Amino acid sequence: MNAEIVESRDKLITDFKTVVADAEDLLKATASAAGEQATVARSRVRESLAEAKVKLAAAEEVALVRAKVAAKATDEFVHDHPWKAIGLAASLGLIFGLLIARR
Description:
This protein is mainly alpha-helical. Helix content is 94%, strand content 0%. The protein has three helices and no strands. Helix 2 (36-80) packs across helix 3. The relative contact order is 0.07.
């Protein structure tokens, strides 16, 4: 699953780079000519933004599902092993407290 996350993240970054490049093309086209070049550039920007929004929504949905699965697994662990959970939480609190006190 980590490979899927990395692949999705890389694809999303690539899509946003495309959006930025298209926006730059739009700016260049509108600066020199407000005719057909500007219309084509605007169209490419709209398409890129729409595609990026869809992919971002899909990535958000995947993240939400994975967060729910992790929360359910944590809840089950705490109910099955309450003393281990309390010990772990106390240990982490102590470690974070010591780290914060150092600063």
